[in-house]
Amino acid sequence: MKQLIIIVLLLFSFSVNAQKKGHRERIKALKVAFITEQLNLSEKESQDFWPVYNDYEEKISSIRHHDIRDLRKEIRDNLETMSDEQASALVEEYNRAENKMHTTRLAFAKKLSDILPPKKIIKLKIAEEDFKKKMFEEFKKRKKDRTN
Asked: Are residues 82 and 132 in the same domain?
């Protein structure tokens, strides 16, 4: 009986992870299509842009979801009991993670300047913000639909 319960829990866990991964993949595909449309990339620009953009996104995501998320969890879990020295160390770590993100953004901007004209770089920034807004609005709409 225990084995059956463990198997069911494992299958459920794999199913949830697959759904999350599938959901992330769909959002990524929508973002790629949105940015492609907004920037109107030439074939050459597209070939050069997407590997650089995907690498940048992967690095930023890693910093956000590993470094910063772990620090936030540590802070949430231990804020009331941590010493000033521990808090100071966490502030330093958080600052390092933020600096890592900033350095990654600057390196990305430099690489972009070799691939895209300045106007398209500006359009990229606008397209990324517009996409985030659209996704947030869709999330709010779906959440509201679920509560009704």
From this structure: no
Interatomic CA distance for residues 53 and 108, integer angstroms: 8
DSSP for 58-75?
HHHHHIIIIIIHHHHHHH
- Whole-model pTM: value is 0.74
When comparing pLDDT for 9 and 142, which is higher?
Answer: 142
Considering the domain architecture, whether residues 68 and 78 belong to the same structural domain is answered as yes
Do 112 and 121 form a contact (C-beta atoms < 8 A)? yes
Can you tell me which residue has the tokens 């966490």?
A: 90
Q: Which domain holds residue 107?
A: 42-115
CB within 8 Å of 108: residues ≥ 6 apart: 52, 53, 56
143 and 93 in one domain?
no
**What is the reported pLDDT for 18?**
45
